[in-house]
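Q: what does this look like with nicotinamide-adenine-dinucleotide bound?
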Amino acid sequence: MTTAADSDARTVERAHGVGIVGLGVISGQYLTTFRGRDDVAVVAVADLDVARAQAVARDIPGCRALSVAELVSDPQVDTVLNLTIPAAHAEIALQAFAAGKNVYGEKPPAATMTEARQVVAAVPVGAWLGGAPDTVLGTGIQTARAAVDAGLIGRPVSAIATWISGGHESWHPHPDFYYRPGGGPLLDMGPYYLTSLVQLLGPVVRVSGASSRSRDIRRIATGPRAGEEIPVEVDTHVTGTLVHEGGAISTVTFSFDGGETGAPPIEVHGEAGSLQAPDPNHFDGQVRMRRHGAQEWADVPTGAGYVGAGRGVGLVDFLRRDGGRASGAMALHVLEIMSSLLDAAAARRWVDITTTVERPAPVPLTRFGAVSR
Ligand SMILES: NC(=O)c1ccc[n+]([C@@H]2O[C@H](COP(=O)([O-])OP(=O)(O)OC[C@H]3O[C@@H](n4cnc5c(N)ncnc54)[C@H](O)[C@@H]3O)[C@@H](O)[C@H]2O)c1
């Protein structure tokens, strides 16, 4: 496998300053991605838990623990990386934009479409909004997209996306947010799958759905609050039908009310063959294809995407000449698909999608290693 060197990173006089707000479970993956790079530097961190922020800052050369208000207005911070819980995403983003910063955030971009529209409208001139998922820029989904774009399965007709689990309270020490508005299996896991479907099949114009809730209480299984019961305020089994602009139809299932599944994460069916894409919650994985009439599935060689990427590659992508693929416009479109699907389920009808997004430029096969100083 030949890859382009990590050479089109922007040439910078100083590293791009990142200030992280929210230092919970997922923050470690971002810190690992940025460690040792010379194009980005984590210059400040903030969390409601001040001791946690101080402990994280101590481990990063040149990094300070600040309050959120200090961090968003700090002159060394170019981009605020928002890793708080969904209910706080909009509030932090709006503070950062008021201070003229770029914002890159975890998904979803806001807990509701109304808040997300406020966030998008607040992006100052010269700044940008981006956000997770950036896993879709890895070799798994990018290789699948390259195969579809090359016509290997013919004209795509349909796709199936499936994510089923028993719920995150089995492993997350503070799983409350997964069961509040802004959470649920669709808003939590949907972004990976739906962003992939938009990458593969283009934007969505109409959705319908059905959803249910198996129980009103969940019990935390691990950590200091193990045994504690938490209320369930959202539907925990969500299914939907998505009509893409090009005519292909996706059927999707996201559930905290199952256990295991043997279903492939994503299958795309075309007029000439079918394709299986790997787990879009990861950056890599094997793409498989089966032309109509073939006896077996065949591996598709890895041919596109960031190789060796980790969470945060989407932020670094913004610093490149052709970058900005994990855009706020994509995050807003995907959030509208999800919130409209839930509205459609509640109202038992189809809902038209009002936002759209161009498919971002494909990612050529590019090594994403740490950049040596
Ligand atoms: N945990 C995962 O595996 C995972 C994976 C992918 C994405 N995410 C996403 O990352 C985000 C965070 O998830 P997590 O699992 O790290 O959550 P978490 O509860 O472990 O951490 C959230 C952190 O944000 C802090 N915080 C909350 N509100 C704040 C505010 N107003 N100001 C400052 N700090 C605040 C909390 O104190 C906490 O330290 C969520 O949007 C989630 O969907 C999580």
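The longest helix spans residues 328-347. Residues 337 and 353 are 7 Å apart (CA to CA).
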